[in-house]
Amino acid sequence: MISINSIYINGAFTAPHGTATFDLISPIDNTLQGTLTLGDEEDVNRAVAAAKAAFQTFSKTTVEQRIGYLQKMYDAVSRRADELTNIMVQEYGGSIRFCRNSTQNALNSIRTNIEVLQQFSFTRHAGKAIVHLEPVGVAGIITPWNASNSFICAKLSTAIAAGCTAVIKPSELSGRQTQLLLECLHEAGLPNGVFNVVNGLGNVVGAAITAHKDIAKISFTGSTITGKTIARGAVDTMKRITLELGGKSPNILLEDADLETAIPMAIQAAYMNSGQACIAGTRLLVPASRIEEVKQLLKENMDIARVGNPAEEDTLIGPMVSQKQYERVQQYIQLGIEEGAELWIGGPGKPEHLEAGNFVKPTVFVNVTNDMRIAREEIFGPVLSVISYSDEDEAIAIANDTDYGLQAYVSSASDEHANRVATQIRAGRVLINGLKHDPMAPFGGFKQSGIGREYGAYGLEAYLEPKAILN
Ligand code: NDP
């Protein structure tokens, strides 16, 4: 039985003041794997004090020094990349292919921050003023369970690049992954207090970070509802906020799209990370004239969406992270049926032989209209809604008829055509003819998908305050 009884403050593993424990349950078979001791407000206070003290000197480090620290961080994480991937598969239940990518994304984000620093100017001119971009202060980093260590590495490496120090609250569902990452980060030998990690509940540790007067900025990834709670709490101390929240991403197949490639891509886009992805392409927009062809191709290509043991190389969809998430997805599948959408593939219940874990049948609804809740709300499971449109203007209108605006996908035989449509979509990223990611490009949402941008120079600027000096 695993027992994790430490948090990380001021360069050392230390026992938390909090005594409550959280059961670590395997999503693959719902067996108890161990327990995690949770921190409390007192632990947040200690972590913030360490980060605040470290900020005095860390904020004055040179770019070269910070590149050196990031390189050490990269090397330390890189040395244990395979272990990080494997523990993610076991604890979170992500497919091995997804988890390998996730570890690589963690490394790429650190590497990218080194490259950004090599090009970035912390001094600018505006009119007669010289503008100095200074680190904002102690950053509070609050992360979810669906790519835990990748989020931590991306946010922490950006904070370090800026000269900020950090207090991190991961999801308690990621306790084992956090512990292994902490061993790597400890090994990297960063100055004491630069990063501190407090495991604990969102409404205890997360709320204490949000309220703390010595934290200057919060970077959060998670649900829109929690993002709003954090934004409300942060305003009392006027914290800067970067919020990366939910999505209901449209995937537009234009009239001229090559469906033989676009449909397998649509399945991958909808079911990536077992559907537990804010960027999942969960609304497939199809020209009415091609709907029958699309329905047929979805059935023919469904073998891509293999659900099963996440450690097996050909699995695309692992279990939902918890029984709570499993129930949530089941409720949405039931809701789709009640709303009158046509169940085309999958449906309620667990796939055969996978009854022990939180496995969901990859599900496709057709004849969905954009006013149905399954088309408007983030489900966070492998459920795809197919919506038909009559002409391109209507496709764009449906794509934009959402509270969200994180990512969108467009498929067309012509890049020029797809780009013309992309310029009319209100989303932070639009991917054309494929699943793409560039850690230099800004990432974040329009509308209720969030505030601010992460990655690259845009991400770095979110940890900096401009100070204008006029002579
Ligand atoms: P949350 O947004 O509640 O959790 C994300 C993080 O925020 C966790 O570390 C959580 O801690 C923390 N948190 C929760 N409440 C507070 C609070 N009051 N103050 C500060 N931090 C807080 O997501 P859930 O895990 O509850 O998932 C529910 C739904 O959210 C999913 O079905 C999905 O739709 C969406 N989601 C979106 C993600 C994305 O990538 N954009 C990622 C994860 C979820 P704790 O774990 O202790 O609650």
Quickly list its features.
471 residues; 2 domains; seven-stranded mixed sheet; six-stranded mixed sheet; globular; binds NADPH dihydro-nicotinamide-adenine-dinucleotide phosphate
Summarize the structure.
The chain is of the alpha/beta class and 471 residues long. Helix content is 40%, strand content 20%. The protein has helices spanning 41-58, 63-79, 81-92, 96-119, 148-162, 175-188, 202-211, 224-234, 259-271, 291-300, 323-339, 373-376, 392-400, 415-422, 456-461, and strands at residues 2-4, 7-9, 12-14, 21-25, 32-37, 123-126, 129-135, 138-142, 165-169, 195-197, 217-221, 240-244, 250-253, 283-287, 342-345, 363-366, 383-389, 407-411, 429-432, 450-451, 464-469.
